[in-house]
Design goal:
Order of helices and strands: EHEEHEHEHEEHEEEEHE
Shape: globular
Strand content: 15-25%
Distance between the termini: 54 Å
Largest sheet: 12 strands, mixed
Length: 251
């Protein structure tokens, strides 16, 4: 099983003093819905959680595309993600949580709990009003924050293992295609503390598999706004409109 090696940090922000990922850590039973090797799974979780708590950036599989995570409450780590991505500093990062009930600590929720649970965990980012608990250096230019709970057991367990929310973005340079395998973002490995290889997370020949999550703003009571259509647009809109009677904000 490969591990992130010790060595000189890569270019850009780097993963931290003296640490860079030279090879991915292969997730045991990656193709299964649950771990087939509990010991190996636990070792991967411990390695990823340790790297995050040390201020590093970790690449992880999700239910849509590969992502890069850091601790959302760590301002230096958040800056490192922006440097890694070559990203506009006014383009917000989402937070990733392990369970729906944790949303209430970091967001002001104005939709029914059942609605949250109908959409999460799943390939949807819900944009809500942020609470005072969230790091003020994370997206300081907006009162809103996107929330992800991917339907992938590893990243959910990783989020639970950390003391606060993860900041999560796709594992690619901004404006480039999203990635479905770890080899597709190999140029970023030297700037990461750890790469978790969960195998392909979609059909690499299918452009639809690279769309990422559907992003929907629910911050206005009774209304919704689609910010990014993503991969789950139709099913998300059906739930919002037909089950909960929400209407597009423009109407």
């Amino acid at each position: 099983m490969g591990r992130g090696g010790e060595g000189a940090p890569g270019p850009g922000p780097g993963p931290g003093p003296g640490r860079a990922c030279s090879s991915p850590l292969v997730l045991p039973g990656a193709a299964a819905a649950a771990p087939t090797s509990p010991r190996g799974w636990a070792e991967a979780l411990a390695a990823a959680a340790g790297a995050l708590q040390a201020g590093g950036l970790v690449a992880v599989p999700t239910d849509t595309v590969y992502g890069v995570a850091c601790l959302a409450q760590d301002p230096r780590a958040v800056r490192s993600i922006y440097g890694l991505k070559g990203r506009n500093g006014r383009k917000p990062l989402a937070i990733c949580l392990g369970d729906v009930e944790h949303i209430y600590r970091y967001c002001h929720v104005n939709v029914p709990d059942e609605l949250l649970r109908d959409l999460l965990p799943g390939p949807v980012t819900l944009v809500l009003k942020r609470s005072e608990e969230l790091n003020k250096d994370l997206n300081p230019f907006t009162s809103l924050v996107g929330v992800r709970i991917p339907n992938h057991p590893f990243i959910r367990e990783l989020a639970r293992a950390c003391s606060g929310p993860l900041a999560l973005t796709s594992a690619n340079i901004s404006s480039q295609a999203s990635t479905l395998t770890v080899s597709e973002f190999q140029d970023l490995w030297p700037q990461l503390s750890l790469v978790i290889d969960g195998g392909p997370v979609g059909d690499v020949q299918s452009p639809e598999c690279r769309l990422g999550s559907t992003v929907v703003d629910l911050s206005v009571s009774g209304k919704y706004t689609i910010i990014r259509p993503g991969c789950a647009l139709q099913s998300t809109v059906e739930i919002l409109r037909q089950k909960y009677g929400l209407v597009p904000e423009s109407s």
